[in-house]
GGDEF domain-containing protein (Azospirillum palustre), 292 residues
Amino acid sequence: RAKDSGRGRICTFTADMNLKVVERMRLLSRARLAFDRQAFTVHYQPQVATRDGRVRGFEALVRWTDQELGPVSPDRFIPVCEDSGLIVPLGLWVLETACIEAAGLACRGAGDVTMSVNMSAVQLAQHDFVPRVLEILARTGLPANRLELEITESQMIGSLDAAIGKLNALRKAGIHIALDDFGTGYSSLTYLRTLPINTLKLDKAFIDDVHRRPDARSMVSSISRIAHDLRHSVVAEGVEEAAQWEVLSLMGCDLIQGYFVSRPLPADRIDAFLAAWEDRRAGLPVIRDDVV
Ligand code: C2E
Ligand code: MG
Ligand code: MG
Ligand code: MG
């Protein structure tokens, strides 16, 4: 019996592997087609300051609904695009689209918001990464200090010096750098000290229990204090409830991002969101008008 189940396991394992390869190949060929047909879109999720409840920026998030596969999550297709190199043109397209959107927002009276765009390790590793980013800023007319690039610490493994050199060049041009998904990797605190960043984004995993568990709360307040000592601002990701906002605000998190404020929105719903948010702002749980 043991032998049977053992053999069964091996068969399943092999079949799974084949399925994964086939699945990834299909995903990649559909993604290539979608890119050529301009079927990707970008949605924008607001980031709000705890201090006064004002919208300080948006994060650009790529979206894809395939004709055959239906909606595909970035968590599924980004890795495939990274392995194949498709992320390089796709990432530049997302960056340019988001910069155009941000420049347009400025013309419509929301001139002081920042646009945050996720960067893949594969993009950062390109030799011409920095000039390509600067070229897009010049072409779209977005001031450099309105752009923030989000990177993750897992991207730094293997090429830390090269990455730091590029990040420094981007910062020198005025672009902001955010460390995304902070707390999910292995050597977070070392990276926090080493990387030239402006912003630290606390991963949703820390935020989920922050209003229920004292241990989650002490993690967030300690990390926030370290980040502030290093003169980084702190963004809480994945905030879904008013109670989380309240706790995070009292603990000194600078910005809140999450479904509590808004889901990521298509570009044509940003103006309506901004108008509606002005009404909601007044009723927020805690508005700090001083800096703690
Ligand atoms: P991320 O950069 O950490 O983005 C935050 C993710 O959390 C987004 O998922 C967002 O929709 C989701 N989220 C925001 N607020 C909440 C909330 O309150 N509750 C919950 N449950 N989720 C929330 P999304 O859009 O599916 O993106 C997943 C990941 O894919 C991103 O994580 C990012 O790593 C990657 N990604 C998305 N767009 C791009 C892109 O243009 N380029 C690259 N390289 N990666 C991207
Ligand atoms: Mg991000
Ligand atoms: Mg994140
Ligand atoms: Mg993430």
Remarks:
- The radius of gyration is 21 Å.
- Strands lie at 40-49, 55-66, 70-72, 114-118, 147-152, 176-182, 199-202, 233-236, 255-257, 265-266.
- Residues 1-6 have pLDDT under 50 and may be disordered.
